[in-house]
Amino acid sequence: MIRYSYLWAREAREGREEGLEDRPCAIVLVVLRDGDAPLVRVLPVTHSPPATPADALEIPQAVKQRLGLDSDRSWVVLTEANDFVWPGPDLRPALPGDLSSAAYGFLPPGFFRVLRDRITEQYRLKRLRALPRSE
């Protein structure tokens, strides 16, 4: 999990190039490219419950606590993503005042497997849309 200036699809449609809010995001794909920087796909985390339960996966409180996130209920959105070249200008410090890292930590393997399976289903149904970000 990283802290990132996530650009929602609706914000991009409005002509924005930068997200309005920095937020936790789950790194779900890294594409290693010969001679080029890796391409990373992130899914946003939000406090807003999904209108359709299949569109997001709730993060268990124990996982949130281990990552140092707040105690409010949160969901990983499964229907949209940002793709960017790592490291990219939109990474933000995970901890206030600590510029050394944008990372909160790793998702536990069991939760990540569930997340991966849910993303795969959304992709198969053509419900996951990725927004390429400029460098």
What does this structure look like?
The structure is a single chain. By secondary structure, the protein is of the alpha+beta class. The chain has a single domain (2-132), classed as Roll (SH3 type barrels). Helix content is 21%, strand content 33%. The protein has three helices and eight strands, in the order βαβββαβββαβ. The protein has helices at residues 9-13, 61-67, 109-124, and strands at 2-5, 22-33, 36-46, 56-58, 75-77, 80-85, 91-92, 129-132. Strands 1, 2, 3, 4, 5, 6, 7 and 8 form an eight-stranded mixed β-sheet that branches. Strand 2 and strand 3 form a beta hairpin. It is globular and about 35 Å long. The two termini are 20 Å apart.
Helix content: 10-25%
Return the domain count: 1
The third-level CATH topology is: SH3 type barrels
Number of helices: 3
Decide which structural class fits the backbone: alpha+beta
Task: Estimate the global geometry from the Cα principal axes.
Answer: globular
What is the overall pLDDT average? 95
CA-CA gap between termini: 20 Å
Largest sheet: 8 strands, mixed
CATH architecture label: Roll
Identify low-pLDDT runs.
none
DSSP strand content: 25-35%
Output the CATH class name.
Answer: Mainly Beta
Please provide the ordered H/E string of secondary-structure elements.
Answer: EHEEEHEEEHE
Rounded to an integer, what's the Rg over CA atoms?
14 Å
What is the number of E strands? Answer: 8
What topology does this entry show?
Elements: E1 2-5, H1 9-13, E2 22-33, E3 36-46, E4 56-58, H2 61-67, E5 75-77, E6 80-85, E7 91-92, H3 109-124, E8 129-132
Parallel strand pairs: 6-8
Antiparallel strand pairs: 1-2, 1-7, 2-3, 3-5, 3-6, 4-5
Protein name: Growth inhibitor PemK
